[in-house]
Amino acid sequence: MLTIKEPADAILILIYLISAVVTGFLTSRIRSHERILREREDRTNTLFEISQDIAGSRNKDEFLSKINARVGRLLDGACSIIVASADGQLMTDEFKPYSPQPHLSEKEQAVASWAFNSGRKAGWSTETLSEAKALYVPLKAPDRNVGVIVYQPKSRRKLSLEQENMLHSIATQLAISLERHFFEKRIREADRLKESEKIHQTLLSSISHEMRTPLTAILGTASALDDDANSKNPSYVRELARQLLDSGYRLNRVIENLLDMSRLGSGAMALDLQWQDLHDVVSVTLKKLEKSLSQHSITVKMPDDLPLVRMDFKLMEHALTNLLLNAATYSPPGTPILVSAQRKGQMVDISVEDNGPGIPENLLGKVFEKFFRAPGTPPGGVGLGLSIVKNIAEIHNGRVRVHNRPEGGACFTIELPFTEKPLDVASRERPEDAQSKV
After folding, report:
1. Are strands 336-344 and 297-301 parallel, antiparallel or unpaired?
2. CB count, 10 Å around CB of 275?
3. Total of domains in the chain
4. pLDDT mean over 284-308
5. E strand or H helix at 256, and its extent?
6. Model pTM?
């Protein structure tokens, strides 16, 4: 039992009491400052993480989802973001916020639309439309409003001034990022339109020439065949028929390349992948081009134990056709053309080598571009053949490369991935079976 007998004891207890009160007060202030500093640190870290999310994300959907989660955790509630459409309207028809929470009711959508159109916050904890369940903060970019942040608290406790400032800071940062995203999207779209217009003009100029040339020859040949005087000369008629066929083949190649380029570019071409023998692909292609390659000696070097490759026979034949016609076009008559194939590790290479002038080093990286034709190119073609070869190789998960041969000429190589043929797959197809696919 504590008793006070002397005045000095009373004074001592009073001093102890004052010390305890002062110590408790100071401790409380220290803890309060510590809590404030921790909250500020959390807000600073969140802003930094949001900046990192925006900078490191590949698209806006990715960083918006991350921001929703971070803001929800920081403010102890559910957060979602509604982004304006390309024409500057809030997407109220679909109203799909970037959040796992359910769609907003019609009343909540109306509050979001008001906040977006007016550029002022509305909803819960505000003086405007305060009956709403969530707080709606507009995303105001320098030029226009780009969306709305929707914050729905778990409890009805109002946000502190610092939390509100935090939410507005996030809204400002997010608005600027979305505006930059929209600008980048518009720039990409403008670049695509510019490139499309360039391709359109190139296509028109190329097609007008390449189709007019064989069509003119066809019309002239047909007119000569219609002449009774010429019909009495069988050798002349055969020569006209040969010219007619050549012009028809040339016109058909132009149309086939355009159609294939269109299907490859749109992704509408489905692959018919089967285990094929490259000997069959080469032999069928050379048989088909026998007349076109008649002025060149063709050498084929392929090992007998070359493995089967899973490919689309028709497409690979088309790619090899373009490489052979390219070699015949750019090499002088009478020069040899070499077709070879070999396995290199997990790849199988198919090469076509010519003895032409080769390709200027500064143009090696451009030969596979659409409508590209090197200076001094002989007439014929629209510059799509090698681009089609590149696309066919890539949809087979392979690639095509080119280099100049030290002894002269160019070498084009298609690299296809090699995998072992499963045991339950049927045995090798016979050449006549492969030819029947053409």
Report:
1. parallel
2. 17
3. 3
4. 89
5. helix 234-266
6. 0.47
